[in-house]
Amino acid sequence: MMQRIAFDCVFTLSKSDFKTATMKLFSISIAIFTLAFSTPLSAQTPCVNGMAAGYPCSNVDFLSFTAGSVLGGGDMNDIWGWTDPVYGTEYVLLGRTSGTAFVDISDPVNPLYLGNLPSAGSSSLWRDIKVDGNYAYIVSEASGHGMQIFDLTKLRNVVNPPVTFTEDALYSGWGNAHNIVINEASDRAYGVGTNTSSGGLHIVDISDPLNPVIMGDFAGDGYTHDAQVVNYIGPDAAYAGNEIAFACNENSITVIDVTDPTDAVQLSRTTYNSQYAHQGWLTEDHKYFLSGDELDESNTGVNTTTFIWDVQDLDAPFLLGTFVSTTPAIDHNLYIKDNLCYQSNYRAGLRIASLDNIASGLMTEVGFFDVYPSGDGAGFNGTWSNYPYFASGVIAVSHIEEGLFLLSLSGSISDLGCTDPNACNYDPDAIEDNGLCAEDDVCGICGGNGSSCSGCTDSVACNYDPSATIDDGSCIIGGTGIVVTVGGGTWDQEISWAIVQDDGEIIADGTTGSLDICVGNGCYTFAMNDSYGDGWNGAIYTITSTVSGEVIDSGDLNTAASGDGSSYGENIFCIESGEPDVPGCTNATACNYEATANIDDGSCEYESCVCQGDVNGDGAITVADILLILSDFGCTTSCSADVDGDGSVTVGDVLALLSLFGQAC
Predict the structure, then answer these.
(1) What is the DSSP pairing of strand 583-584 with strand 599-600?
(2) What is the largest CA-CA distance in the chain?
């Protein structure tokens, strides 16, 4: 994720220009956009008919999800992995705003959170992690953070997890860094986007992991946002075996020979119509470099675009082609394994493209898993990064606001699949069983969890679902429907909000626009966030009852009852005496009066329950009724003994009653 910080010059930008050039990430507070008190969703689910565990998918299966609140809290960011060379255990290293979480995924359906390594400085949205051997190297944009070095073998024997870890060493050759790049073949670390070397390559020898030593730097092309450094095996014979850096430098793809770190040499600098050259990765033969531009989607309105660079001549790379996705989401980090490109494209989730025709400048999407199903727009929510290099085939994906997804390939892009011919997702082409054979659920959905036909079946509830055939216990009785409307400001794209119960559970969240929901009686926190930190700029929220039309609450971030009023704020609103809408006859004198009805639906009728001749209403026609007629004889107005219904009490009423005498009603 981009952040450009200048240390050696002073410049002035308008708010509009600065926002165009700066990352705008929805940074929701720890208490809000993590699913508090959540546990892993451990029911692995195959991707069937385009869905897995409620998420849109194609050729990617769901293994598990663990909420960020379970992993130490905060927003998630970078992700990497380590496999224990002795025991083969696989671990996820997950960056968060306040530290790094370590997760044992030896059972990917039931991952185990081992503990947290707190940040070496203040919290930051930006944290980056890489591994060399048995050590993790962690950097952050937090001022004075340096580079944490952590011995990963300590993960083997964690007693009573989760625990709080401490780093084993701290490199202080820089303060803040945007990213850390490691070439495992040379045991070198490259700090990029640091407060040294003009933000360029800060080269460190990590062959002695706990005693890192600076080797040199390269500042000749200014700020480097991200890079990949390799021992080169590509076709350019002039540089065979050399250590080469492929750097994304905001407005260029820059190639540097760093074989001699004291005399790094720029081989080429290739520009294009860039908005912000962000990150990229080499194909495994080092012939092509794929890169993403983090601001072209939001600034120019193009769909997700991947740039395909031919780097077979390191002195003269050129743009071979572009791959334009079907979604408008912003691209972030991408990695390549086995001729597949794994892209974390924010709101579009994990997207997987085949590189079979990359020599022709072509990529083809062959799979995806959408971790942000509510939309694919050009916003900075959803997945930050992914790690596809585990030998087990597990793909680890970080979700900024929510937590950790563990996934696996399936279908046509995997040799794994269901080999049970009795299963509803039987794959006759599968070579090895993936353990995800499924059966139809109660709704008839293969691999489903019954949710497609489940819901509230009580018509009295405000969240009644007429399409549901199985009641899931979600009915809200005594609540009311509300409409949350947010917007009207000059920078609405920075806005997010959530409605939170007393126990910390989020019952609704969103950005701008309107959302209809059903809530029970009680008081709630309306939490507001602005990703830029300058308030809502004229935007307001309104909460309106769908029953009465009454405005229950309204306000904005700037005047919030609590919070800083610029980046985060909270107001409290209450739903009191909310009653369900119960239509029926509300007239107590009607034959079909309903005591529970609170809305008269015009159905009242007064004939079916009337027994003609039973003047005293005792259920039978007797002498007592004759005596009442005689006592009311001659009445012409509002006559209680008017048996024949002509408006008066006469001989006709006496004769009518005598004809019915002795009958029971």
Answers:
(1) parallel
(2) 126
Q: For the beta carbon of residue 174, count every other beta carbon within 10 angstroms.
A: 21
Please state the three-class secondary structure of 299-337 as a single string: HHCCCCEEEEEECCCCCCCEEEEEEECCCCCCCCEEEEE
The pLDDT value recorded for residue 579 is 52
- Please state the φ and ψ torsions of residue 386, each to the nearest 5 degrees: -145, 160
* Rounded Cα–Cα distance for residues 80 and 266 (Å): 29
Residue 446 resides in a domain: no
424 and 479 fall within a common domain? no
19's CB contacts (< 8 A; 6+ apart) are 491, 532
CA 452/CA 441 separation, integer angstroms: 9
- Tell which residue, 555, 466, 458, 478, has the closest CA to residue 518: 478
Sheet holding 252-257, edge to edge: 226-231, 243-248, 252-257, 265-271
| 428 and 490 inside one domain | no
Is 526 in contact with 543 (CB distance < 8 Å)?
Answer: yes
Cβ neighbours for 85, distance < 8 A, ≥ 6 positions apart: 134
Nearest Cα residue to 77 out of 453, 326, 346: 346
Smallest CA-to-CA distance from 518 within 555, 465, 558 is with 465
- 273: helix, strand or coil: coil
pLDDT recorded at residue 577: 54
User: Would you call 350 helix, strand, or coil by DSSP?
Assistant: strand
Residues paired with 36 in a beta bridge: none
pTM: 0.69
Is the torsion defined by CA of 518, 524, 528, 529 positive or negative? negative
pLDDT for res 42: 42
Amino acid at 607: E
Beta strand 318-324 pairing with 333-337: unpaired
**How far apart, in whole angstroms, are the C-alpha atoms of residue 388 and residue 382?**
17
CATH number at residue 636: 1.10.1330.10
d(Cα 618, Cα 623) in Å, to the nearest integer?
Answer: 12
pLDDT of 480: 83
The answer to whether the CB of 317 falls within 8 A of the CB of 331 is: no
| Sequential DSSP letters for 464-478 | B-TT-SEE-S---TT
Alpha-carbon span 345 to 338, nearest angstrom: 20
Task: Please give the pLDDT value at position 208.
Answer: 98
Contact 454, 517 (CB under 8 A): no
Q: Is residue 444 part of a domain?
A: no
Q: Which residues of the chain have pLDDT under 50?
A: 1-42, 578
Cα distance between residue 411 and residue 409, in whole Å: 7
Token pair belonging to 21: 């050039």
- Nearest alpha-carbon partner for 330 in 366, 292, 367, 365: 292
- Rounded to a whole number of angstroms, the CA Rg of the chain reads 34
- Which structural domain range is residue 572 located in? 1-32+472-579
Burial code (b: 16+ CB inside 10 Å, e: under 16) for 306-345 equals bbbbbbbbbeebebbbebebebbbbbbbbbbeeebbbbbb
CA distance 376 to 513: 16
CA 333 to CA 278: how far, in whole Å? 8
* Same domain flag for 16 and 140: no
Report DSSP letters for 429-454, one per residue.
T-SEE-S----B-TTS-BT--SGGGE
| Pairing outcome for strands 340-344 and 333-337 | antiparallel
Whether omega before 388 lies within 30 degrees of 0, making that bond cis, reads: no
CB atoms near residue 562 (< 10 Å): 12
Residue 651, domain member (yes or no): yes
Among 66, 74, 76, CA closest to 32: 74
